Amino acid sequence: RVEDLVELQRLRSLLLVPEVVGRALQPLVAAGLEPVVWKGPAVADRYPGAGLRLFEDLDVLVPRHEHERALSALRAAGWMVEHDAAPDRYDRVLRHPDTPGMPVELHYEFEARHDRLSTLRADELWARRVPGRVAGVDAFVLAPSDELVMLAAHAAKPFHCFARLMWIADLAMVLGYAEEAGPSVDWPDVVGRAASAECATALSVALAMAGHAGAPVPPGVVSLPRRGWRATALDRLVDPMWALAPAPPIHLRFALADSAQRRLALLAGFTHGYPALTSVGWYARSVGFVARRWHALRAPEAAGARSS
Asked: What b-and-e string marks burial along 93-116, b requiring 16 or more CB atoms within 10 Å of the CB?
């Protein structure tokens, strides 16, 4: 029954999560590190009840230059590496035999190089960390403005494209909690940090979607393109019926990028991991499609010029 599943998740949040948080953070702190807990585990406490925000792992962030030291400390405490570092990864996944139901993702970056929608960097987020509590355990968390920007940028990642409603619920809960319990959101700071990280579009889309869930978003904060192909794509995304739409179109990942340079970088990294011949074929077909489309758009202009 649904009630049984809810109760199971509530007990998991009350019993397993504090155990995993303590077991993961204690050896890191003992090694002189200051790890940050972020994403789902850090947001869950803003939900009105235990077990309402589900997450499968504990996301922990340390700066890149301290990642190996953090890994050694966790290994010494009995954590075993399940997924090691790789060119297309930005974390290591570890699991402890005493808490097999929840692994730890030890992050050293926010996103992979070939998939960077923004210039948001994990080291900068860590540098502005603040003390907090996660599942009743003392921990470092992201600064309030950084958390909002990060949640929006995370949901907008090219392989995410706001596909999970849970990410929008996170924003709504964080904003609602800030309005009720404080501290209040410093909106100029949030908008400024999103602009400097080149994820202002992602933030605007995320806030527009959170507004559908009743989040207190002040007027003027959401700013989206009004014309062109990006406006058309993003209008579909912020529509309240987006959750019932089919899989997001491929061009949406480019529409969410703030600059042409970001879009070109995403295009260059689109075939990451593909065999070489497959990549060459995909780019050749893409160039051909763009050329034909450009010619079709230019043809009416040329015909008009000749007739005049």
From this structure: bbbbeebeebbbbbbbbbbbebbb
The dihedrals phi and psi of 119, each to the nearest 5 degrees, come to -105, 20
Nearest to 18, CA basis, from 140, 139, 135, 138: 135
298, two tokens:
């230019």
Which pTM value belongs to this model? Answer: 0.87
Strands 91-95 and 36-37, sheet pairing: unpaired
Instruction: Strand 91-95: give its sheet, edge to edge.
Output: 80-83, 91-95, 104-107, 58-61, 36-37, 137-141, 130-134
Mean pLDDT of 126-146: 95
Amino acid at 203: L
pLDDT, one tens digit per residue, over 184-240 is: 999 999 999 999 999 999 999 999 999 999 999 998 899 999 988 899 889 989 999
